[in-house]
Write a structure and sequence with these properties.
The protein has about 260 residues and is an alpha/beta fold. It has helices at about 10-15, 30-40, 55-65, 80-90, 115-145, 165-185, 205-210, 215-220, 235-240, and strands at about 20-25, 45-50, 70-75, 100, 150-155, 190-200, 255. It has a seven-stranded parallel sheet with strand order 3-2-1-4-5-6-7, sandwiched between helices. This is NADP-binding protein.
Length: about 260
Amino acid sequence: MSCEPTPSVHVSQLFSLKGKVALISGGTRGIGEACAIALGEAGASVCLIQRNTSNTSTRDALRLLGVKAEIVPCDLANLDEVRTVFDRALEMMGGEIHVLVNCGGIQRRHPAVDFPEKEWDEVIDVNLKSVWLLCQAAGKHMVPLRRGKIINFASLLTFQGGLTVPAYAAAKGAVGQLTKALSNEWSKENVQVNAIAPGYIATDMNERLLADPTRLRQISERIPAGRWGAPADFAGPTVFLASEASQYVSGEVLVVDGGWMGR
């Protein structure tokens, strides 16, 4: 068995997700919201993994695009809920999921000598173990069907250690290696597994950095593009990795960072 060849169609069709179903976590705000909307704009039906159904803004925006959009409740910190969410989404979306996007995550900041064990466990469970469980469930669905796309959200801290974020760095480093490990097994089954590593993005996860004038200046001066990233910068990369345009791309960690890693 091997990966199916890239279709010989007009290039615009390579990026179409019409008829596809995408499952995404973290889609209520920031990068995840931009990715969810982009998937819908490309034609996909979208199922949003959310802690609850109180926030319907992304779902409603997707429905305005004319695509099917649903919410499947799941707290990523509750691993029992995570273990069932893929199957619940599958039933909700008519028995098919073609794309999984793991974008949900949390951040905790403390000096390493003071980092609470409870918060370490929370970060690892949400940012790594939930990703693993969702990938495994997706693989069980996609591999027998010989089709599928999995996109994990990594980080610059997949490559670098960061400051006062040891749990986050550990989790995101592991996400990069998990992405490669799954690609090694599933590429020949026509399931492409890749990751996106955001650089410094102006979202609420980085609000403490944005509010620190010294760190803001230090970081901004080091970004070759001359600005922090925005959620909209992830629409194109996500659609690319979710579509047939990336048919022969697997095991990659695509860095979207304004040139930070290149420097």
